[in-house]
Amino acid sequence: GRSVAAPTMMVARPLPRTLYIVLDPMRVPDRVHVRQSQYSAIEFRTFFKRSLRTALAPYFQRILVVDSPPLDEPDPHFVADVRLDGIEMRPHGRLGYAQDVLQMQWGFAIRPSEADDYLFSFTGTGVSETEYSQLELGFQQMMLSALTGLVSKWTEGDVFQHLIDATGGNAAPTPAPSTTRSL
Question: Which residues pair with 103 in a beta bridge?
Fold first, then answer.
């Protein structure tokens, strides 16, 4: 399966709590009609799941993507809610000819499991480039743009540090250095 990787900031130690990314099928369907076109994105939810997990992997030791928030998880964890507002195709004129651009509106919010409100909430737009040879490449460009926007706001807002602070200042323990001997 395909996924895209947005640039991420370097993190010395990921957070030890599990991140549950909630991709409710009603909020992020697997088949999405592209407004103002005859096209639909098939297996979009799967593509979104892989790409979002890849983008957030440096920050968390463990990431699980679920359909609904875990109600039986006894350990403190993080919950991220994701919402897809829609995808549309927009004409884009350039140098005397028109090309269609894909645009996705979406939202992402995260909170510690013991909190009622989100610590970070983001709404953004992902846009494909104006040139792509296949629709699938346009979707990849759009998703990369969307995730780059998220990671950019995540970094600007110092969200990683806020997550550490909200959970008692604990990032994952650094493993003991290994020693090697030569004979």
Answer: 88, 127
